[in-house]
Every structure is written in C-alpha cells, then in structure tokens.
DNA sequence: TATGAATGAGCATTCATTCAT
DNA sequence: GATGAATGAATGCTCATTCAT
C-alpha cells in the first residue's frame, strides 16, 4: 500500500545514531541480492526496517547513497583483506589464504558479487573510480608484502578473473587447479622463501 | 517526445527483414553505453531508429531481447576472437596479439564493457550462464591451441582481470608491464618454441 | 515470437468456409472465460486456432465481432430454449424444466455467464439492445405458451435473478426452494391444469 | 495530455485527508459510466481531479482499488436500502417503496448499473463474492422484516431481474404491471395484513 | 529532526488496427 | 483472398524526489 513498507516495531526508533550505517549496510545487502539496478529507496528502506523518508532524509540522492555504500564496502573489505593476511608467516600459508579467497564458497559470495557490482558501476560512473582505485592499490599493497609489487599486480588481476569464473562456473574448479595457477603466477622463486623473507623484512 | 520518438524518414520502412538483427545490434550499443540497467525498450528503439512498438513486437520481453542480444554478442565475439589468432605463427606473435587484447584502447572498449555486462547479468540471471560458459570454453579452446589447456585457463582469467583493471585505471598500464605479466603466465617454456611447435602440430 | 500465437497444423487451412463461424464460437468461449473486457483479437485467434490476421480480416472491428458473436449466442440460445420446452406436456414437466434451468450446474454455467455478459454489454452499447430485446421477447413467448403473457414476464425476471444468485452463491440453493419460488410465481392455478390446457390449445 | 491530466488549480492540494475516499467515489462514477472494463487509473484520476500518481499511490493495484470501490458501494447502498424502508408502516407502503425501486428512473440508474457491474465482476473474481453475498444477505434481511425469509429471497431475485429488464427495455414497464408482479410474488396473504403484523411484531 | 503523502516522468507491455505482400 | 509484420496509443505500475507537517 501507500509507502508504509516495512512493518514491525519501528515506533520509538527516534534518535537512532547508527541509522545511517544501518541504511548503508542494508543497501549493500540489496545490491548483492538484486543488483545495483534493482536497488531502490524503497527496497533499502524495507531491508533496513526504516521509513522511506528516512532514506531520502539521510542521503541527498540515490546515487549518493550508493556511492557511500560502496565506499563503506571498500573500507570494510580492505580491513577484512588486511586481516586475512595478518597471521600469514610462510609462503605456504600465503598460498593457502589466496586459494581460500578464490574457492571460498558462499561465504565469500556476497562480497565477491559486491566487488563486481562496484567495478561495473565505476565503469559507468567515473566518480566511483576513486573507490576502485583505492581498493586496487590497497589489495596490491597487501599482496606485495609477500610477492613484490609486479607479481602483486599480476596476482590481483588473476584473482579477479578467477573469482568471476568461480562465481559463474557450473561446477567449482578444484582447489588443486586453483593453487597451481596461483603458484605459477607467483613464480618459482616464491616457495624458495627468499622473496618471502624479504617480505617479512618490510 | 510523445511516442513519435526517433526522427527520420521512417514512413514506408515496412517489411524490413533485418529489423530483428538491427534491434539486437542497437541493444548491444545501448548496453555498452548505458549499462544493462539503462537499457530500455525506448532507448533501443531510438538507437535502432524504429518505433517503440517494433521492439516489443519482435521480442516477447525485455529480458528476452537482452538474452538474444548477449547471445549475438557471444557469437560475434567468438568469431572475432578466433580470427584474431588465425594468422598467428610464432610465440612472439601470439604474445603480441594477447597484449593487444588488453591494451587495445577504445577500439576494444565496447566489446570489453559488453563482456563484463554479460558477466554481471549472468550473475543475476542463471539462464544467461549458458552464454558465459560457452564463451569461456571457446576462448580457452582458442588460447589452448598455443598454450595447452591449463595455461589457457590461467591466461583467460588473467586477461579478464587485466582488462577490467585497464578499463578502470586512471592511466593505462604500459605495454611492457602487460607483456611481462602475460609472458610470466605463459611460463618460461613458451618462448623457447617447443610448446608452440607442439601447438602447431595439433 | 511476435504474434505467431497458436501453433499446430494450420497449414493448408485455406478455403475454410466455416472459419467465420469458428471465430464467433471461439469468441463466445473467450467471453465466457475471460469476460468481454478480456476478449481480444489475439485471444480469439488463439482459441480458434486461426492466424491473427484472419480475425481482423473477417470482421471489421472487434466491436463488430463481439456484436456478431452475441447475435450468434442469442440465436443458438433461443433455439436451445425452444427445444428445452418442446416435449413438455404437463404443468409438472414445465416446472421441472424451469427448475433445471436455474439449478443446472456447470453445464449451464457458460450460457448463463454469456447471458449476463450480453446484458452488461448492452447496458453500455445501445446497439446491442436489439439482441437483448429479441431474446427477452423470445423467452417470454416460449414461457407464455405455458403461463400466459403476464406470468411469463414475471417468471422471466425471476429466473434472471435466481440464475445470477445461483452463479454467485457460495452453495447452491436446494431444488426444493427453487421449485417453491417458481411455483409461487406461476400462481396457484397453474398446477390445476386449466391454464395449461389453454396453453396447449394455442 | 502528457501527464498533466485534469486541469484546475491543483497546486497546493497536498495533504488531502479525504483523497482516498474521493478516489473511490470517482471510481464508482467511472464504473457506472464506462463499465468496469473502461475503468482505468487515468480515467479515475481525471474524474477525481487528482494526478495519476496519486491513484497508484493510494491503492496497491487497480484490482485492489476496484474491490475497495465496490466495498464502498455495498456499504453505502446497504445504508440507503435500509433507510428506504425505515418509515414503512403498512403493507401498501412497502409495496410502493419496492415498486419505486424498480421504476425509479434515472435517479436509480447509477446504483442499479453499479450493482450489475459488481455482480459481473464477482463472477470473474471470486474475491469479490464476499461483497455480493453480504449485500444479498443484507437486502434479504431488510425485506424479510416485511415478508418472511422465503418470500424475501424470491422478491430479491425478482427485483434483480426486473431492474435489469427495466434498464434494458426500450420503454419502461408501467408501474401497474410492476406492482402486480410484486404483489403476486408477495402472495395473497401480504395485503391482508397478518403477515405484516407479524413483521411489525419483531 | 523525521516522515509519509504527493507527484510527474518513465517503463514494460498489450493491443486494435493498418497494410504490403 | 489471407496473413503477419508493423505501429501508435494506451495501460498498469514503479520510483526518485519534493515538501508540508
């Protein structure tokens, strides 16, 4: 009916300091589920369990909201990425974490889809490229600590392609094949440890 | 406005046997320009210079039209891809053609964008995955003639990622860096010719 | 796609002298099923297993087609009505036939619905009133042979209302209640036979 | 044309608390005039002198709007019907009021047409039958106060048929003929007063 | 500050009808 | 004669955004 939208105990939610954040997270959920195109004020409001007016009140426009949602995604994702490699001590561990990144099933589905949605959106809206570029740099920087800058760039691209293929493939690639591709890209020197030693030295 | 839509001498254009194809090509243009989300019956009709009713007459739904447009894209793109490698005789030529693929500026922009739009669309609509899978297999098959199947799969993923990065990068990667990444993925044996010789033997 | 509509062995159906009639009958089917409003050239064509162009070719307009279909309905229905009472010899038989008319389950559903659709259509389109009036006169004439003209008119109206209620009622009225209402409307003299004897004398 | 739709000083009409009701009444006007089939969001909006978006804002779908309009009709009509018989004290008055119901010219035209439109609509949409059934029960209850339940049901059906015939007839039936039919259906006892006396006793 | 009523632009889709073949 | 491609006008509906409260 007329815009009532989400039901539930919304009464008394005034003074909700985290409302903005909650809307952004809801927006990311909706984007992951319905695509950027299927993301509307109304869907977001319903997902966040917030009145429609609240969404338009806190964000100047839908484009603005999406941009901020993607910014939040990059921020959260970067932190997650960073943390993934925090405890990596050996080249073998590094490879395993990277393999997990590609093979990591439905757990990583949401973030992978969001990543591609962001890339596509940035293709159309140059204003979003600061986000994709920041994200790329940050990813490469993390990887570079273990591989050096050139290999990091290559690995980053390879991962991008492999993750997309993994999302679309009828049946998942085997971990072994994935590992082989990664190891090959890292180059023969990687597992000999010297490069890794240098990385730890940084 | 008001239904007349596209201008031009459209009177008497009846019985246009290639209209369907023209609409599909127009749809691909529009997708490349405005994204799948921005692709509407009206935009397509204007681009194809046909009345709105003509677009809905020839295709049962917009989703159907998009699916057929993407199918046409895969078909055309596969043929183009095939032809690109037709005259490749040496490993060096192979590498150059692949580097062109990544660096190939605005000329390749349209088809690259369309490829990613298709990937994203397939992520949302499983019915489109027959297209992405067919396309992936075909690409790998072409590459595999020069690299063997495993390396082909890796190279394919790497190219996917590099092309996306190239599309989004503020300034294009140098051809040298691109070539280095590719050569590294092909493996040291590639340029020594034996692998290529084997490929030619197939 | 695009208007092909009905499938099947339509090839070679040229020179189909009954096509007009078949289209009209299909139209009546569609009206009964989807209502006058839901009746389109395309639905009719599909139902009649005839190309779309054939429907517009044989009838100047949809309104014209509907008018002719309703005319056919009145014609067929009048004949059926006539025949229903053909073998009625006693007042008791007369009452039973009339009760059947009201209680006659799904068998009579189609014709009853069509009757009301025609009434409603005639309310909007005065051109159709020649049909409803002819139908009313004919029905009354048949009934009057057993009841006299005044009672026939009353009975006709009563039947109209009872049939509509029967169509809409959650559970059907009992035959007994229906019979009682009819008998009461016929008047006490009816079953005494003298009136009926007079009717047979006509 | 082009979205502006109805003319008039509509600027500043915001916050119109009775808008919903006004739209429903406009819908009933339109149904009476153009039939359920000819009732569109746009016609209703024009009739209610509200923008198109307002109609779709307040009602989830056109079917929903029509259902609510018909519900309002039944409600209003039931009240009117009730009031018609409020001051009836004698059997003679009762008969006159009922005769008025059938013969009541253009004044009753709108409500009669709406009644039949509702019946037809309920034939197609079972969801509307709660309305027709409620309406039937209520009508019978009012009549039964003067006639007893069985006669009330018969009279209700007779009235339904007579009103439809009156709407479609080229020239109106005479009051006398109408009265005769009603009196005959009420049965000989009615005007003798005993039945009515019983009714008053309730 | 927060909200939901309000609105105009736009969209996918249907369809009666026209017309070249 | 018959057909199906073609078309423009409508239709139901969605939605970003504005704004009175």
Question: Could you provide a short overview of the structure?
Answer:
Chain A has 202 residues and is mainly α. Chain A has 10 helices and no strands.
Description:
Chains A, B, C, D: Pfam families: TetR_C_31, TetR_N. Chains A, B, C, D: This is TetR family transcriptional regulator. Chains A, B, C, D: Residues 17-77 form the HTH tetR-type domain. Chains A, B, C, D: Residues 40-59 bind DNA. Chains A, B, C, D: One of its GO terms (molecular function) is DNA-binding transcription factor activity. The structure is a homotetramer of 202-residue chains. The first copy, chain A, is an all-alpha fold. Chain A folds into two domains: 12-59, Arc Repressor Mutant, subunit A (Orthogonal Bundle), CATH 1.10.10.60; 63-201, Orthogonal Bundle (Tetracycline Repressor, domain 2). Helices cover 72% and strands 0% of the residues of chain A. Chain A has ten helices and no strands. Chain A has helices spanning 19-34, 41-48, 52-58, 62-84, 91-103, 105-124, 129-147, 149-168, 175-186, 194-201. In chain A, α1 packs across α6, α4 (62-84) packs across α6 and α7 packs across α8 (149-168). The N and C termini of chain A lie far apart (60 Å). Chain A binds chain B through residues 34-37, 113, 116-117, 119-120, 122-124, 129, 132-133, 136, 150, 153-154, 156-162, 164-165, 167-170, 177, 180-181, 184-185, 187, and chain B through 34-38, 113, 116-117, 119-120, 122-124, 129, 132-133, 136, 150, 153-154, 156-162, 164-165, 167-170, 177, 180-181, 184-185, 187. Chain D binds a DNA duplex (21 and 21 nucleotides) through residues 2-4, 13-16, 19, 40-42, 50-54, 56-58, 61-62.
């Amino acid at each position: 009916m007329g815009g009532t939208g989400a039901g539930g105990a919304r009464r008394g939610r005034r003074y909700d300091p985290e409302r903005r954040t909650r809307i952004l997270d809801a927006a990311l959920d909706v984007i992951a589920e319905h695509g950027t195109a299927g993301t509307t004020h109304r869907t977001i409001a319903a997902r966040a369990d917030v009145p429609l007016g609240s969404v338009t009140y806190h964000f100047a426009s839908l484009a603005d909201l999406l941009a901020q949602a993607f910014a939040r995604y990059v921020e959260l994702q970067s932190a997650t990425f960073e943390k993934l490699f925090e405890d990596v001590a050996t080249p073998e561990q590094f490879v395993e974490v990277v393999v997990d990144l590609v093979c990591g099933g439905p757990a990583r589905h949401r973030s992978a889809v969001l990543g591609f949605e962001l890339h596509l959106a940035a293709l159309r809206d140059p204003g979003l490229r600061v986000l994709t570029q920041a994200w790329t740099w940050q990813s490469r920087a993390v990887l570079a600590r273990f591989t050096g800058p050139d290999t990091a760039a290559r690995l980053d691209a390879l991962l991008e392609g492999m993750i997309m293929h993994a999302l679309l493939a009828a049946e998942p690639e085997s971990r072994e094949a994935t590992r082989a591709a990664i190891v090959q890209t890292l180059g023969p020197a990687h597992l000999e440890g010297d490069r890794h030693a240098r990385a730890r030295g940084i």
